[in-house]
């Protein structure tokens, strides 16, 4: 799935956060109230959790034709915070739209509390991870009329990947390929369809979504297997422990099966 970035790059980019944050947008008020409206009786003061999200990665998160954010990660987040509020906590949450690579910088700078945006576990990344909430893989996608059948055909070819992702890491491992890293996955896929690049490496669930809409195909074997997680920093360990409890309950619920079947072509993860 998504997402990795080096610690050195985080440090180098930290000063850019103030400028980036001026271009962000928070979630709708209804998203925040959805969690707080189910709060059980508690003496805890209300705490607002700010969540970084990059809505360019369907089916995890994207924007509808009306401009509203939608996707599995958003519905999962609502379920998690409703669960926490029903079990003695008092949270509300807001999403802040950022490019994916900026989410990591914002977390390290303390500007947001969580990253929920198709993240995958990566031990090279500074911070803490939740338990897995979905299993996926990085795969190779080409235009429907492409003659590329595997990574062996990409020597001297241009391969796209989203900047800061594990897809970029996997693409860099393709022998002889020239990697083009971009910020926006939607732009990358449009470029692939227009034959501006020869292939992309992207999350399987995202690939399945694009393939279902036509114009693309997945070729070859998976480049790496992955686990989707929520990402944060060490100072949010107590919150992450609570989230892990909620994730376990979520995966055991009927809603989990419903949402995975709704958003992912492969349905519930094994």
How is this structure best described in words?
With 270 residues, the chain is of the alpha/beta class. The protein has two domains: 162 residues, Periplasmic binding protein-like II (D-Maltodextrin-Binding Protein, domain 2); 90 residues, Periplasmic binding protein-like II (D-Maltodextrin-Binding Protein, domain 2), CATH 3.40.190.10. It contains ten helices and twelve strands. The strands form four sheets. It has a five-stranded mixed sheet with strand order 9-8-10-7-11, with helices on both faces. Strands 4-1-5 form a three-stranded parallel sheet. The protein has a two-stranded antiparallel sheet with strand order 2-3. α3 runs parallel beside α4 and α4 packs across α9. It is elongated and about 60 Å long. The two termini are 16 Å apart. About 10% of the residues have low confidence.
């Amino acid at each position: 799935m998504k997402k990795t970035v080096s610690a050195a790059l985080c440090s180098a980019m930290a000063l850019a956060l103030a400028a980036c944050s001026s271009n962000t947008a928070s979630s709708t008020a209804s998203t925040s109230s959805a969690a707080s409206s189910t709060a059980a009786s508690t003496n805890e003061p209300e705490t607002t959790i700010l969540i970084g999200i990059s809505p360019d990665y369907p089916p995890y998160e994207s924007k509808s034709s009306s401009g509203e954010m939608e996707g599995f990660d958003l519905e999962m987040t609502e379920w998690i915070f409703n669960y926490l509020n029903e079990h003695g906590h008092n949270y509300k949450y807001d999403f802040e739209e950022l490019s994916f690579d900026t989410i990591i910088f914002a977390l390290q700078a303390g500007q947001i509390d969580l990253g929920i945006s198709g993240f995958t576990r990566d031990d090279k990344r500074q911070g803490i991870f939740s338990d897995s909430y979905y299993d996926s893989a990085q795969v190779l996608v080409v235009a429907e009329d492409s003659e590329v059948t595997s990574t062996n055909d990409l020597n001297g070819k241009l391969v796209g990947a989203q900047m800061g992702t594990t897809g970029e890491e996997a693409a860099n491992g393709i022998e002889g390929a020239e990697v083009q890293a971009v910020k926006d996955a939607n732009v990358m896929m449009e470029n692939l369809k227009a034959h501006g690049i020869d292939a992309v490496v992207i999350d399987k669930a995202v690939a399945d979504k694009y393939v279902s809409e036509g114009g693309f195909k997945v070729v070859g074997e998976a480049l790496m297997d992955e686990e989707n997680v929520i990402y944060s920093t060490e100072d949010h360990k107590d919150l992450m422990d609570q989230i892990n409890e909620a994730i376990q309950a979520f995966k055991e619920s009927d809603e989990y099966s419903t949402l995975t079947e709704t958003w992912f072509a492969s349905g519930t993860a094994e």
